[in-house]
Amino acid sequence: MIWERSRATAAGVVVGLVLVAVGALLGRPDVAVLGAAPLVAGVWDWRRRPSTDPAVRLEASDEPPAAGSLRADIVTAAPADVLLGVRRGVRVLAEAWVRVDRTRRLPLVVHTVRTGPQEVAFVDVQGVGPGAASVSEPSAPASRSALVLPAPRPLGDLPLPPRLRGLTGAHESRRPGEGGGLRDVHPFSPGDRLRRIDWRVTARRAPDLHELYVRREHALAEAVVVLVVDSRDDVGPDPMTWRGSTPAKPEDPTSLDLARQAAASAAQGFLDLGDRVGLDDLGALRRPLPPGGGRRQLDRIRHALALTRPEGDPLRRLRAPQIPSGALVLLFSTFLDDEAALVASVWRRAGHRVIAVDVLPTLRERQLGERERLAMRLIRMAREDRLAELVDLDVELVTWRDQPHIALASLARRAQRRAGASR
To answer: Which of the pair, 353 or 326, is modelled with greater confidence?
Structure first.
């Protein structure tokens, strides 16, 4: 870098020379003295200009990450003060004059509503010499990428698949076993445990104890849930950004941000109940995350969700992804084309309970022109017809942008009213 004389110092030196010259020509020593001060100060500070260049870098912060926040440390190395600029995209976050004694570390916290891989910020510095007499060229911008995991939101009651699997879990099945509610009282037979004998019923039905009666219970089982995210679309609330020429605003969550949050929330809710949850991506031909349980499975799902993104042209599958037998399927999509609706209908015809979660953001159409309004009307009509066909196929619909916990609780109660549901 090259240190240059600042404009203010250059102007001061020029004014000082003029005053000294005018004082000498007119014989006015007082005027010459007024010009000597900025002249001497400018020359002296210019001779003291630094010889090394300032540098800046972004390092990982020691502070624990928080939901919706990106943290990093700005490390500046400079022989003098610097002008620090922080920007994110085209938006300037901060500009400050920072005093530096060789090295200084400053914390940086950026709030975001977006998820997935993204840049924390771009930071550059410009050195300022003693007395602000000299300035350096701006340094190359330093940046640091981060992976923002979706933050789950609490949900209430959740729907269950038609059939439960496994020998353990938190849900009562129709199979005889242990841990659930009372199934019936039955005469003692080989294989029954002695601790299951109901002495009150035995005393009432067989006072002479010629026959023993045992209490039989329902077995507890677990649900298998597969979350399917449609990553082919990542659209914001402004339809003018859908063409891709203009990016969505950083403060606007996109459809994929809503899908990540919705899938993470559902995963947390089912895993807290002891169920097994898996993850698949409708927009990528990669190995799905098999169903599993526990806290580590939630971490794996959140990390995989953060990595989902559109990859090139929208993918058209030759067949729908394979789903485990008897699993509940939650499909998170905008349903702007027929692909997601097609695979949902295939799963429903195969006997799975399918819940379509609409993650299209609330659209802003006030700034659209007449042609754009007509195009959006056609898109909306086609999308509504697509969703109506899914409802006719008994695919249940939930809109995430409204109040999803109420809709999911309603679906859970609806399943309980069905004869033999969730058993």
So the answer is: 353
